[in-house]
Amino acid sequence: MNKVLFTHSYFYKLDPKQWKFQQPYPPLATILAAAVARKHQFEVSLFDAGLKDDPMQITTALDAHRPDYLVIYDDGFNYLTKMCLTVMREAAFVMIGEGKKRGCRVIVSSSDAADHYDKYFDHGVDYVVRGEGEETLGELLDALREGKDTSRIVGLAFRSNEQTVVTPPRPVIRDLDTLPMPAWDLIDIEPYKHTWIKRHGYFALNVATTRGCPFKCNWCAKPIYGNRYNSRSPRLVVDEIEYLMKRFDVDYFWMCDDIFGLKPGWVQEFNTLVQARGLKFRYKIQSRVDLLLEEDAIEALAASGADSIWVGAESGSQKILDAMDKGTTVEQIYVATRLMKQNGIKPAFFLQFGYPGETRQDIDATLKMVLDLMPDEVGISISYPLPGTKFYDKVKDQLQLKQNWTDSDDLDMMFQGTFSRNFYRQLHRYIHSVYRTHRGYASFRKLLRSPFRLTYRDVRSGLAAAYFIPAAITQRIKLKLLSA
């Protein structure tokens, strides 16, 4: 039986912003790929880079397992890997080099490798898996084991006679229920659990229920799964949740789909199964405000344990939403947010600044929306041109040598925005400071109304306001100077 060592190139500790949050998740797509290789009768092992300090630590796993193949399979369910951060690319190159030193065939499946074949081939990679990778990887491993020609396998890129060969794309998997359960047994779960409980007081794991997105936001992560939308059956999702609850004593889940429960009736059937099995857990999802307003979606989500819903609010300006081809309205953001709160669900906003054509009035409209609705959390980003998107095509002629952020806190404008790079960096801080200040005000009001219902988070928010008030004033002055 041939041996395959799986790994991935996202090191939380090399991304200071994300490591500060202390919310690490196991590499879900990586262990799913390992389960597929097992199904093809390969002996699999894992070097989980997530909580490691340095890519050179892979040498211990390489020497212990002596694999025939090293597969760097990035977790495409984690949006951080889709950003193609250069610090992670460099980590991947180190691991590739160590694998090649030991005679491994090296296979890579990642958004970055699919965008930059030759950079990876120059570092010794034998094959790059393009797009949805499970079927391609299984077919490739079988062919290599049997000494067969790989040039007819769709979804690949490789070098032959110093020329890059790219085979046709592979159709997406329509029936996700044919995939095995991820190889959770490969994960050392205790470091993840310890990190979560120490910082947050609970432990969360990640589950994927869907692939793809039928909507056409023109800046969104390139369509690995196309504009199709395929769902696992609610029964198999509930089976996996029940398995994880029993095996790892976990009661909180991140449903790491681009959109959760889009298929008509899916959320309702999911809720029925959860109730029938008597499962008690909380979870957070990503969705769209227009979808949340359909039928009894929010009520069914709340009944099944939805704790937090992240929506791509993006902007409080309808002009910017339309320019993004978002397909939602500012009014829908207001209505859906208030309905979530009424049903005990915490709304959370993804916000994006710097989109071409944005004015100071658009920025002010976004801040007003945030302060009017006061979501439970906000995630702020600067418009980032991902290869394969319409937005990238719009601004690619403006991109200079830098086309990727170093880490997720880089926030560098890589094209010509309305304002300077320094303005948008300062804006990021300012929005956070104003938001945190208003959160502090809310905590003080709660203290006056219901002093015995205060939570630790309320107290922390109230005390933090003392820092954020002067910070916001200073940052506002800087913004005026930078926009002059």
Structure description:
By secondary structure, the protein is α/β, with parallel strands linked by helices. The chain folds into two domains: 3-166, Response regulator (Rossmann fold, 3-Layer(aba) Sandwich); 176-389, pyruvate-formate lyase- activating enzyme (Alpha-Beta Horseshoe), CATH 3.80.30. Helices cover 45% and strands 15% of the residues. The protein contains 19 helices and 15 strands. The protein has helices spanning 16-21, 28-39, 58-65, 79-82, 86-101, 111-115, 117-121, 134-146, 189-200, 234-248, 266-277, 289-292, 297-304, 318-323, 330-342, 360-373, 390-395, 421-449, 456-483; strands at 3-7, 43-46, 69-73, 105-109, 127-129, 156-160, 163-166, 204-207, 210-212, 229-231, 252-255, 282-287, 306-314, 346-353, 377-382. The strands form three sheets. A seven-stranded mixed sheet has the order 2-1-3-4-5-6-7, with helices on both faces. Strands 8-11-12-13-14-15 form a six-stranded parallel sheet. The longest helix has 29 residues, at 421-449.
Summarize the structure.
The chain is of the alpha/beta class. Helix content is 45%, strand content 15%.
